[in-house]
Design goal:
The complex is a heterodimer of chains A (135) and B (796). By secondary structure, chain A is mainly α. Chain A has seven helices and no strands. In chain A, helix 2 packs antiparallel against helix 7 and helix 3 crosses helix 4. The longest helix of chain A is centred in the first third of the chain and has 19 residues. In chain B, the strands form seven sheets. A seven-stranded mixed β-sheet of chain B has the order 5-4-19-18-17-6-7, covered by helices on one side. In chain B, helix 11 crosses helix 12 and helix 20 packs antiparallel against helix 21. The chains are: A mainly alpha (135), B alpha/beta (796).
Chain lengths: 135, 796
């Protein structure tokens, strides 16, 4: 899963750098470019789920299927703060492996505005740990 | 899916897999809701808990597509939980109620009618009941989610128009014990401090609250304070159940449900025994009370000395170490700023007021009050329980501005301010919530207007009360945005505007009033409640030939309903009814509220002061502008609360007392109930948001692994929970959450077989009349392995 993310993140970064330019961007301007680049379909290796199966919380399975991701998230401020998978990655039909920056903007609009020239959030705040100083 | 096969995947979730999918609509809004898609943003307040998060609703071509936090808001600092980031998805949901619906008998089908007919019917039915059975056969039951303008206007019509104090609301079910605690300890309702204390606090004493799920954005601030200062900031979580809130705790104190009165008294004893007392604070500001008597410090010390840590640990069930009680008491007293935080675990109790008093006692004994980072801080459950219901006159015993109905001068004051004849408002308080629905059962109440809440799902011991509401002899009006379990027992269903489809004010936990202006039209024929109230009242006045009704609505006649009408109501309430009261809101005009990113904390008597944000701390000289009016000399604090004429804070001796039910041979376990982060109350809203529904599609019951092993219960087995009031069945989660001997069930489910409130005890606190949702006795048994289940959201 983590390996699969790398090219997607790179794509998002490239687009973001092109789009933001210099100066102060609005949140809307910032998120638009990143969002276009980062929206990704449900990954091909995710099993299709019936409507009933879609009623299972993501973490119930990903605790076992992607334990590294789960453990990183659980120990992070998002984990302690109960920011759940679907808040960044969407739900089954509109799932994004790499979230749009606009998802981050829901809570972190001020940082995105202040860091208008910065690459996408997760470049420095790695996905699921969010700690720029973590290994 | 490398580490687990699809087969294993499905097997793991067996309880949640099902062949059938009956009666469920899951409309999806695919690929929408991203911020970049919005073309306009309107700033308002979230309505899905009591925190008061400020957010902006994004519209694209007039359609709601996104929500985002307001970074410069002092409530949420820009953060939102999943409910706050997703509720835009229900605003144009196909299930929205869009036309008035009526049926003469409750066994009939509803038929669509015009507003003209609907308002005529509502007026005629209440007039008929008043004429035949008297004013007190009429009732209003409102909500902590209604806007202040709505609650204020409803209660004005009920009291001065229909001449009954049968005005109640669901805050009776969640916050009444906190009100009772604040009034009896501090002489004034609502917290002295606010959220800004969190970043200055060094010791968080969290008791009876899973704030990580019930108040997630305030939790985030507490979490950040602890994580940024892991060695200097301490957190204790005292609760019968280990929860998400325990994750940052230095110490978790687990006790049998209802035994925390002993724990709190033992902490007071340790503080006195080890002389951790702030004697100056006690001397200058406090008196000691026991029953109806004033006692001295020595007597109080002697009374609490009975509760040694060893004895308290034993009363609490033996799960905690007496030395941990000593440790938490020392931390409480010695920190540079201590905040207590609590919610339903303290309030929904037969002795909820006492539990509140005992928390306040700790702050008074140690002087952990009024200074930065120190407060005895009750978390509120709903977005406008404080602002609308507690302040706006939404309970049977209080008039607007914290005026008790029974106080003649204050009642006459209100009559004069409203311009209605003296004696128009009856002096006797109306029925409190549980008495109100008992009166419905007994047909003493024959007409009831239920606004923005669903008692047919949320009352304890639900079945007899729901049967009462279902009687054809009782005319039931329901105003709401969606069908609920209560529309199932209604005669008349009136479609209302959602917030952001109308203008109004919410007042959150920390005395903060915040406006949400209209951003878009409501769907179909849905209308703001304030318009309905005016039209209904005018018709009743005409039918009764009673000119006082016209006087009641006179200031509001001719005003358009989206802004001018609620503004006129807010102006009357704030400028007339809060003048001279402790919740003085005269400075918090619509003009000011619309300028502020995060509203105003009362008291705020002038616009100039309100534009600073208002009073961060009540009763503190230099921060509270009313101190100069009430205080002589230069004391730093003046406790001018309306309930204590002596301007003193009361330290109450309250003995340990048992809950209404304790386990016995027939019902050997404790049953407790509560909330989960993804859902709000009955799920009539959050159950219609796919992400939130999927996160927790059913109620479930948490069972301690030792109990599960003893009873042969495995995860996802179906568990029958039986109490003296009935039985329900729901899936098991086996986890180190509740203590051995206790089970914990969630109430966010509309399925008849899983509605936990059917079996919850309806005994209530004699002081606050708040029911004991949190504690009862039950027995459980597994009835099957994992079973197919359907999520249920009520349809008309």
């Amino acid at each position: 899963m983590l390996t699969a993310l790398i090219p997607l993140v790179a794509l998002a970064l490239a687009s973001c750098a092109q789009g933001t330019g210099s100066g102060v961007a609005t949140v809307e301007e910032t998120v638009e470019v990143a969002a276009q680049a980062s929206r990704v379909d449900v990954p091909a290796d995710h099993p299709s789920l019936s409507e009933q199966e879609q009623l299972i919380a993501c973490a119930d399975c990903h605790r076992d299927t992607t334990p590294d991701v789960y453990d990183s998230w659980y120990a992070s401020t998002h984990g302690i703060g109960n920011v759940k998978c679907y808040q960044c990655h969407g739900t089954y039909e509109d799932m994004k492996v790499a979230p749009a920056v606009s998802n981050c903007a829901t809570c972190h609009a001020d940082m995105i505005t202040k860091q208008a020239d910065a690459p996408a959030c997760w470049t420095c705040h790695p996905a699921h740990t969010f700690d720029p100083h973590a290994e | 899916m490398n580490a687990i096969s699809r087969r294993q995947f499905i097997k793991r979730a067996a309880a949640l897999t099902a062949a059938s999918y009956v009666g469920m609509k899951l409309p999806f809004f695919l690929a929408d809701a991203q911020g970049q898609d919005a073309d306009t943003w309107t700033r308002g307040t979230c309505r899905l808990c009591g925190v008061g998060c400020r957010l902006e609703l994004g519209l694209r071509n007039g359609k709601p597509v996104a929500l985002r936090g307001v970074s410069d808001s002092r409530t949420n600092l820009g953060y939102l939980c999943m409910k706050g980031m997703l509720f835009h998805k229900i605003m144009e949901h196909p299930d929205r109620l869009t036309k008035p619906l009526y049926r003469e008998k409750k066994s009939d089908d509803f038929r669509e009618i015009s507003w003209e007919e609907a308002l005529d019917i509502a007026a005629q039915k209440f007039v008929d009941v008043k004429t035949e059975y008297g004013s007190d056969a009429c009732a209003y039951y409102g909500s902590g989610q209604a806007q202040t303008e709505e609650t204020y206007f409803f209660q004005k019509v009920m009291r001065a128009g229909l001449q009954t104090n049968n005005v109640e609301g669901n805050p009776r079910l969640c916050m009444a014990s906190a009100v009772g605690g604040y009034l009896t300890s501090f002489g004034a309702d609502e917290p002295i401090g606010g959220y800004s204390d969190i970043e200055q606090c060094y010791y968080f004493f969290i008791i009876g609250s899973n704030m990580a799920e019930a108040h997630p954005v305030i939790w985030r601030r507490v979490m950040r304070r602890k994580l940024d200062n892991p060695d200097t900031v301490k957190v204790v979580n005292a609760d019968p159940r280990i929860s998400a809130t325990s994750r940052i705790a230095d110490l978790h104190l687990q006790f049998d449900p209802g035994t925390d009165l002993a724990l709190l008294n033992a902490m007071a004893h340790v503080i006195i025994e080890e002389d951790l007392v702030d004697h100056d604070f006690l001397r200058d500001y406090c008196v000691f009370k026991k029953g109806g008597d004033t006692i001295d410090f020595d007597q109080f010390a002697k009374d609490v000395a009975e509760y040694t840590p060893e004895k308290a640990a034993e009363i609490c069930g033996g799960s905690m170490n007496p030395d941990d009680i000593r440790k938490t008491a020392r931390w409480f007293a010695n920190s540079k700023g201590t905040m207590s935080m609590w919610c339903m675990g303290i309030n929904q109790r037969k002795r909820g007021v006492w539990a509140n008093n005992l928390i306040h006692n700790l702050h008074l004994l140690t002087g952990q009050l009024c200074k930065p980072g120190a407060d005895s801080f009750s978390l509120t459950g709903q977005p406008n329980a404080c602002g609308g219901v507690r302040e706006g006159g939404g309970l049977c015993h209080i008039l607007p501005g914290h005026r008790p109905v029974a106080k003649d001068p204050l009642r006459k004051d209100v009559e004069r301010l409203w311009g209605v004849p003296e004696g128009r408002i009856p002096p006797k308080p109306g029925y409190h919530t549980m008495a109100m629905f008992s009166a419905v059962n007994d047909r003493k109440i024959r007409a009831i207007w239920i606004n923005c809440t669903s008692p047919a799902q949320s009352l304890p011991n639900l079945t007899p009360y729901r049967d009462g509401m279902a009687q054809d002899e009782v005319f039931v009006v329901v105003t709401d945005v969606f069908a609920t379990k209560t529309t199932e027992v209604a005669n008349l269903v009136l479609p209302t505007a959602f917030h952001f489809e109308k203008t109004g004010v919410y007042g959150c936990t920390e005395r903060r009033s915040q406006i949400t202006p209209k951003a878009k039209d409501a769907p179909g024929e849905a209308m703001p409640e304030v318009w309905m109230i005016r039209e209904w009242a005018r018709r009743m006045g005409e039918k009764l030939n009673d000119p006082v009704f016209a006087k009641v609505i006179e200031p509001f006649e001719g005003l358009e309903p989206d802004f001018d009408l609620p503004k006129a109501i807010w102006d009357e309430y704030t400028q007339k009814l809060t003048k001279g009261r402790d919740n003085d809101l005269r400075g918090a005009t619509y003009d000011v509220l619309l300028q502020m990113p995060d509203g105003v904390q009362w008291p705020a008597p002038t616009e100039k002061f309100a534009l600073t944000g208002g009073a961060v701390k009540k009763f503190v000289r230099g921060k509270d502008p009313l101190v100069e009016e009430h205080g002589e000399g230069d004391a730093p604090y003046v406790f001018y609360g309306p309930a204590h004429a002596d301007k003193k804070l009361y330290v109450w001796f309250r003995p340990h007392a048992l809950p209404g039910e304790v386990p016995d041979d027939e019902y050997p376990m404790y049953l407790s109930t509560g909330r989960i982060i993804d859902h709000w109350h009955t799920t009539s809203m959050t159950g219609r948001i796919p992400e939130l529904l999927r996160a927790n599609p059913y109620s479930f019951v948490e069972i301690n692994p030792k109990d599960a092993e003893r009873m042969g219960i495995k995860p996802n087995d179906m568990i029958e929970i039986t109490t003296r009031r009935g039985k329900v069945t729901m899936p098991a989660r086996v986890m180190e959450g509740p203590l051995e001997g206790t089970v914990f069930a969630y109430w966010h489910d509309m399925a008849e077989s899983r509605m936990i409130n059917k079996v919850v005890n309806d005994v209530f606190d004699p002081g606050s009349q708040e029911p004991e949702f949190k504690i009862g006795a039950c027995r459980i048994r597994p009835v099957s392995g994992p079973r197919d289940l359907d999520p249920v959201v009520t349809q008309l």
